[in-house]
């Protein structure tokens, strides 16, 4: 496989490159998140360190997931459970905490590949639900042809649901992605944003609540 290794620690990167090459992989190494975003398109697999000098690794991971479904394992020194959860929610397929044995890494990589890829990013920039038109690229929403003014977060929330119609997104997952904190105090704020979306569009069913689970894009019928 063509493996993109995003790791700023030269010694670790060099050891991993050697180990991966020994297993028949072609390795491209990058020490910066910006390069990772640029190079991910040419990779069959990405190994991503979270502690990078130019960008928070979780931010890099989120951005990467907007454009690519490449299999990815987060490789990091962070051990807090919260970081693990956030990494996995942000789109990692698996997680390894340093130090680890290379045989463990190889096994995890194989397992991720065997399991298959995660859902693809959306093919369309425009999602329509009944007479509601959500333009993800231009960040515009129209109901029955009339534009609806949404705040940035209201739009982000609707877009998050619209990107994967039918998929239920948990409250923590939404709070993490939109508010940047899964635990959070903004919990009440999420309810308010959902109410606003329903009221402003005049389509109460557009955001469907699944009690105790989360939200998904609903219908306008
Ligand atoms: Ca690092």
What's the gist of this structure?
With 221 residues, this protein is an alpha/beta fold.
Key features?
Arc Repressor Mutant, subunit A, Rossmann fold, alpha/beta, 12 strands, elongated, 221 residues
CATH topology of the largest domain: Rossmann fold
CATH homologous superfamily placement of the largest domain? Response regulator
Number of helices: 8
Spans where pLDDT lies below 50 across 5 or more residues: none
> What molecules are bound to this protein?
calcium ion
Q: Can you give the helix content as a percent range? A: 40-55%
Placed side by side, the strands forming the largest sheet appear as 2-1-3-4-5
Question: How many independent structural domains?
Answer: 2
Number of strands: 12
Give the CATH architecture of the largest domain: 3-Layer(aba) Sandwich
Strand content: 15-25%
Terminal CA distance reads: 47 Å
Report the order of strands and helices: EHEHEHEHEHEEEEHEHHEE
Shape verdict = elongated
* Most strands sheet: 5 strands, parallel
State Rg.
19 Å
Q: Which structural class fits the helix and strand makeup?
A: alpha/beta
In the CATH scheme, the class of the largest domain would be Alpha Beta
**Mean pLDDT rating:** 87
Modified residues (4-aspartylphosphate): 49
Domain OmpR/PhoB-type: 124-219
DNA-binding region: 124-219
InterPro entries: CheY-like_superfamily, OmpR/PhoB-type_DNA-bd, Sig_transdc_resp-reg_C-effctor, Sig_transdc_resp-reg_receiver, WalR-like, WH-like_DNA-bd_sf
């Amino acid at each position: 496989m063509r493996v993109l290794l995003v790791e700023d620690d030269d010694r670790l990167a060099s050891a991993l490159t050697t180990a991966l090459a020994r297993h028949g992989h072609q390795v491209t190494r990058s020490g910066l998140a910006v390069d990772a975003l640029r190079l991910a398109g040419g990779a069959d697999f990405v190994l991503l360190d979270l502690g990078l000098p130019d960008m928070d690794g979780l931010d890099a991971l989120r951005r990467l997931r907007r454009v690519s479904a490449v299999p990815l394992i987060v490789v990091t020194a962070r051990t807090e459970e919260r970081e693990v959860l956030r990494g996995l929610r942000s789109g990692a397929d698996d997680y390894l905490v340093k130090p680890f044995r290379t045989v463990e890494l190889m096994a995890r990589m194989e397992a991720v590949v065997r399991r298959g890829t995660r859902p693809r990013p959306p093919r369309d920039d425009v999602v329509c639900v009944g007479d509601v038109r959500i333009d993800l690229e231009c960040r515009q929403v129209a109901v029955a042809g009339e534009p609806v003014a949404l705040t940035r977060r209201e739009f982000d929330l609707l877009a998050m649901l619209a990107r994967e119609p039918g998929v239920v997104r948990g409250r923590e997952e939404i709070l993490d992605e939109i508010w940047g904190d899964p635990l959070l105090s903004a919990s009440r704020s999420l309810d308010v944003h959902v109410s606003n979306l329903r009221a402003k569009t005049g389509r109460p069913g557009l955001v469907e609540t699944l009690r105790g689970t989360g939200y998904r894009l609903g219908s306008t019928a």
